Backbone:
């Protein structure tokens, strides 16, 4: 019988809540030696994920500059989208997990096959996926978990 995500997932998995402080998020990541942690609401639903990429402004995001603009008739006309700047600013000044997290993360059902997980990880380019059953978090699966399972089969 083919392996499922439930067979190889890490469960139970550490989590944080949207109202947890960034300091608590960092403590959970450090204590469990994780590169990412799911964010769950009081009902156990996975509402976000925080990864190392959310914690570090790198590359073009390292400089937090205002988008280019010019003045016209006493107002400002921005030449770039403000959405990207607002997202970087929100994460740079985050005090709570909800400000730092990536909302609506890519998830996978516990009943999915390991091959389905491999395809989803490859397509989404994520290193870890929250595993859900009926919308509630039940574990996490990583790229390494999937690779090890595929080499065993």
Residues:
């Amino acid at each position: 019988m083919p392996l499922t995500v439930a067979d190889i997932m890490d469960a139970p998995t550490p989590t944080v809540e949207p109202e947890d402080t960034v300091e608590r998020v960092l403590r959970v990541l450090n204590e469990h030696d994780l590169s990412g942690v799911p964010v769950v609401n009081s009902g156990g639903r996975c509402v976000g994920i925080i990864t190392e990429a959310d914690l570090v402004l790198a590359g073009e995001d390292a400089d937090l500059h205002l988008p280019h603009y010019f003045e016209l008739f006493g107002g400002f006309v921005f030449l770039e989208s403000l959405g990207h700047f607002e997202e970087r600013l929100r994460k740079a000044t985050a005090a709570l997990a909800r400000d730092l997290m990536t909302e609506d993360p890519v998830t996978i059902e516990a009943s999915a096959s390991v091959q389905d997980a491999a395809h989803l990880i490859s397509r989404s380019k994520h290193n870890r996926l929250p595993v859900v059953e009926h919308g509630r978090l039940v574990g996490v699966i990583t790229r390494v978990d999937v690779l090890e399972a595929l080499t065993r089969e």
